[in-house]
Task: structure prediction
Amino acid sequence: MTGPRTAALAGWLAALALVLAACGSSSSPSHAPAAAPSGAASAAGARDADLSGVTLRVGQTGWAQFKAALQVAGLDHTPYRIKWAVFPGGDKQLQALQAGALDVAQTSDIPPVFAAAATTPKWRVVAVQRAATLQQNVVAAKGSGITGIAGLKGKKVGYVQATTAQFFLYKLLVQNGLTWNDIHAVPLTPQDGVAALSSGSIDALATYGNSVVTTVRQGATVIGSGQDILSGNFPWEASTDVVADPARSAALVDLLARVNKAYVFIRDGHEEELAKIDAQDTDQPQSQALEQIRANEQQIPTAVRPGGAAQIAKEQDVADTFSRLGVLPGKVDVASYWSDALSARLTGALGTS
Result:
């Protein structure tokens, strides 16, 4: 397996290209700031500062989910510009963030651990998004005859390196009396994993999101889930330059408050509107997208929150797990790349105490 340090360094140029080629649609600033997410949900910095010259380059994984949520809630007309970019994984977002090709990333709690192990981070975790852990599965190829995790012994198993997929695959193996060395682990991107499973190049795949939907549609069988293994914490990372910049950090706080407000709106009877966009972007039936959205919001309602000791401790467990697995070069101090620099403003913007 390629070491995480080598993989991160090698991926930066590719990540730069991804930013340019990804969905780079933007939200243009309105001539006057749009109505902010009601009352306390508006960032004070966004009200007080002229943000018309600010551009935030924001990454997402899989499909443009946050952009769609803001559109559904009518919160997409921001007093600053947003350039959205979609990536195949959170690790690629952090490579782009480290290289200066992205301002803001949103990942699971696994990619930051690997990125911090690879180099000194030029970014900080500034908030956490609580979100569902559904659609994080191990799927067996059609006709493979594999019916459970124990059946993976000696098999070729694809996984998305440095993501939730690698973490829950490892945990599921241990739960079933196996070790990482009991399988032939093959690191793949989600897209390449789907293709490899379909062609028979691998016997099973640990993946997430749209890749699960696609493989199941092609006849794969779900044999394991990360639902009860993963924390449900999905960090928002920002470059240290953004954190230190008054105008850009104010725009980021406002954006996070808008995302939080958007999901409150969606849960208040507007799931079908989001499902319509989701179905178009992910090429699945709208009824299926709606079912998944409702299941996600029922399991863990999507919400943005400032980070804290509890979230840091859970991510430290992730780092320690990968250290035991031998894929991290020693211990990673998770707290070193978390920052509370935006917490007070975000708390005010969210209307929380």
In short: Confidence is low (pLDDT under 50) at residues 1-25, 30-45.
